[in-house]
Amino acid sequence: MVWGRKKPFSKWFCLLIGLSLVTWTLASWDPLLARAQGISIISEAAEKRLGARADVQILQQFGFYADPFLQDYINQVGQRIVRVAERRNVSYRFKVVDDPSENAFALPGGYVYITRGMLAALNSESQLAGVLGHEIAHVTQRHGARRMTEALGYQLLTAALAIGGAASGVGNPGQWAILGQSVSMNILLGHGREFEFEADEKGLFYASRAGYDPQEAGKFMRRLRQLERLRGAGYHGFGSTHPETTLRILKMEEMSGNLKGKDLEIGEDRYKAQLTGLIYGDREDRQRIRIYSARPGDTLASISAEVLDNPHRALDLALLNGIDEESSLRPGQKIKIIIDK
Asked: How far is 30 from 219, CA to CA, in rounded Å?
């Protein structure tokens, strides 16, 4: 799933993803067997090879966020969820990419990515678990492979044969670009309404089984909706292939209510403590996240005036931290603030 503002993919990037798919999947593709099973024309082994190839291109496109401690933390949370999910034969790799938009997505073969912009928007380990659980569900349910199968089917073989002819001087070489763009769109730009709802349901189930409060996921989605309205920016859930955000939130809240249990973690302070020094927004803005520990009697208004030297930033702090502007702060509570480098 693409959760936030969509970053355009270059034609060469799309082409390389497409070439990887053709190279690594056709050898193991049995269309008749796949059609009979009703699952995918892409084998599990091919998914893993495709993911490994595509991972290189993803990191070239977005950039790897070079913070080993943060990368390790995200991997720990991700692996905790993987332990309660299906398809444990898949080696999951969790990576933070250097992009300011609020996004997370997964590729076939267990490659899961989350942007630093998404990490800045989240406010608890349970919210992180909800996002990662959703992306893990796309992998466990093979949504990437199934989506490509539904969208391309036997057309993929037809295009591949045409490309093979072009390589020997026959056919239209432009088929390369067309196929590459089609494949990358299906892998990276969403899985369709049915699969997104399924990933929501599975992801919440995984998060709760791993010991996280699943209600935090719906809470986060409501904040994203609020930010979208205030900023006028597009967030996941408004595209034609995705569920409408309000419906999604209602379904997530209903599902998480059914998953309530004892001793479920939220992990707000633990999560925010990991974000110290995280680059915020575009790199040229030269801003980072600093974590402030609330003192007795602190309010967002007082923090805005005393720490940020601006009495009018209380609403910004509220939106950044996923709380109301007039919220009472407990001593020691972690508060994200934005500072210049």
From this structure: 44
